Amino acid sequence: MKKTALLFATIILTSLSASVTAIAAPSAQEAINDYNAGRYLACLQKLQALNLKTNPTAHYYIALCAQNLNRMTEAKAEYNWVIANGAEPLRSYAQRGLATIDKIRTSAPTPIATATPAPAPKPAASSSATAATSSGSGLVKKIIDFSTTWCGPCQEFKPHFEEAQKHFKGIQFVSLDGDSPDNSALKEKYNVNAYPTLIYLDAAGKVLKNEAGAPASLEAFENQIKELNGQK
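Above: the chain sequence. Below: its structure as tokens.
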């Protein structure tokens, strides 16, 4: 599924770029860059300004941005437009996005599950990428990744998040589904308004960094952690 999501993300990015080249290529590329960086409001506004009323790919991207921004009515309308006017495989992806919204709206909220205590930090590995294992405050001890299955950048970042766990043994890595009602309280607590969003916490639970969007590579992600831990 991950490979399919990444392939589709590449296809629709290429399609969007090609379809608007003759109209306003710089603006279209800026919108794509904004989406990849997690700047969903900026992407949505730029695509709407291009006024691509008959472009299914543009409508699909607007739907994704609106859903990331929790503007579900707008996202639903855009998905329905793509379903009615788009072609495969875009139509199927729009149907999947619409089903996600309907599931959120019809699911009754459930209490937040009690968090499982973090395991005791293991001895630091010799790798230069290993995080500090001090129990003092101010060091990254937990990273929460809020993401969704329909978010392209989320799926692109997922392998980096999983790989980093092997290098930072003293840090707890937690992935949470942003679409799940179970996580609504945590999303509100950490002011999560877009996907992916990374929350870096110290041992006392203090937020060291709230980052909308995700680092573009494993190296950038690990450098971010080391910088927060004063290792750069």
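The radius of gyration is 19 Å.
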